[in-house]
Design a protein that fits this description.
about 100 residues; mainly alpha; Arc Repressor Mutant, subunit A
Length: about 100
């Protein structure tokens, strides 16, 4: 039987990272105290230090910039498909007239 993956709130993640940064505790000590994998804490610390305002956007959510890029990529894909369909239609109707 597999274990369900643990999920933590943004506030908990922030407090764990701040314990490392502000109190000077080691990652391994915080990991033991909170029962969180060390590698996970290292990643969270790195994410926090790279962008404090956008760190830990939430379960299944992207940072606003990433969300916009994803939306634009989807729109671009649809436009390219529509363009390809129109190209095929033009080719089909020009052959039919000949």
């Amino acid at each position: 039987m597999s274990e369900k993956r643990k999920s933590y709130e943004k506030e908990f993640k922030l407090s764990a990272v701040k314990m490392i940064i502000e109190s000077g505790m080691s990652v391994s000590q915080v990991s033991r105290d909170l029962g969180i994998n060390e590698a996970t804490l290292h990643k969270r610390k790195k994410d926090y230090l790279s962008d404090q305002q956008q760190a830990f956007p939430g379960k299944g959510r992207m940072k606003p910039g990433e969300e916009e890029i994803s939306k634009l990529k989807k729109e671009l894909h649809i436009v390219k498909m529509e363009r390809d369909i129109l190209k095929k239609a033009i080719a089909f109707f020009t052959k039919e007239k000949e």
